[in-house]
Amino acid sequence: MSSVQSKDGTTIAFDLAGAGSPVILVSGALGDRAGSAALSALLSPHFTVVTYDRRGRGDSGDTAPYSVEREVEDLEAILAETGGSAHVYGTSSGGNLALGAADCGVAITKLALWEPTFLVDDSRPPQPRDYVQQIEHLVSSGRRGDAVEYFMTAAVGLPAQFVTPMRSMPMWPGMEALAHTLAYDGTRVSKSMSGRELPRGRWATVTIPVLVIDGEQTPWLTQGADAIAAALPEARRCTLPGRTHDVAADAIAPVLREFFSS
Q1: Sheet of 22-26: strands edge to edge?
Q2: Residue 162, SS3 per DSSP
Q3: Among 22, 41, 167, 242, which residue has the fewest nearby CB atoms (within 10 Å)?
């Protein structure tokens, strides 16, 4: 493990694997660098792969108060440690973070997005207006499991009867440990999960090549992917047949290898 200091002094932990052009993997909600290990292993024969713990997760520090600008600075600090520029792959709300960084002028050379969190119509309810406050209240009350369940139902959109049995699964304690960061992702996507169309010209300044990828089994995210791809000047679209939001590393790796190598 290596680490770097972000602009506000927060320690950000990261791992390097492989050799070649750098590719940074940005995890989504409840994700950390350990969750990116399988994808890193598949990409590292072709690239220098950087996996990192977003602030508040794993071995990285956390500095209050949270702001989306600080997470952009974290990614910029990682870029500075890996040569100053890199390709970036962002998953779910991590895609929103990576796209926001590109919009801020961070030196991303190519950007791949897996189902960035954009709700642009009424195909499902938007993120509740008090979502972040509810997550913060549950976590501060010691109800981390309830915070994760609220995320699964209110943000992901899973029926409650599907989520309740998940509490007994081996992965649940790990998700509870990261429950406080759900407010961070909720803050990041609060505008993009509004159910409104993208503002005209919003992403016109992101002129780098962008690949927007989705799975066939996630219709509301597909509509968001279509909308964000249409709003980006140099975007391509790709849909993986039969895939859900929780895409397997061996399904996405070939797509990323081709895009980042071209």
Answers
A1: 2-5, 11-18, 48-52, 22-26, 86-91, 108-114, 210-215, 235-240
A2: helix
A3: 242
Number of other residues whose CB lies within 10 A of the CB of residue 189: 24
Residue 123 in domain? no
The string of pLDDT tens digits covering residues 191-202 is 999 999 998 899
The answer to pTM > 0.90 is yes
Q: Please tell me the distance from the alpha carbon of residue 108 to that of residue 75, in angstroms, as a whole number.
A: 10
When the pLDDT of each residue in the chain is averaged and rounded to a whole number, the result is 95
C-alpha span between 79 and 57 (Å, rounded): 19
Burial zone of 173 (CB within 10 Å; 0-12 exposed, 13-18 middle, 19+ buried): exposed
Average pLDDT by consecutive 10-residue portion of the chain (262 residues)?
Answer: 96 96 97 96 97 97 95 97 94 97 96 96 92 97 96 91 92 95 96 91 95 92 94 96 94 98 91
206 and 79, same structural domain?
yes
Q: What is the pLDDT of residue 106?
A: 96
125 within domain boundaries = no
Note whether residue 214 is domain-resident: yes
Domain assignment of residue 20, given as a range: 2-117+199-261
User: How many domains does the chain divide into?
Assistant: 2
What is the pLDDT, as a whole number, of residue 220? 84
pLDDT at res. 219:
84
Q: Does 40 reside within a domain?
A: yes
Going by their DSSP bridges, the two strands 108-114 and 2-5 should be labelled as unpaired
Distance CA 256, CA 211 (A): 9
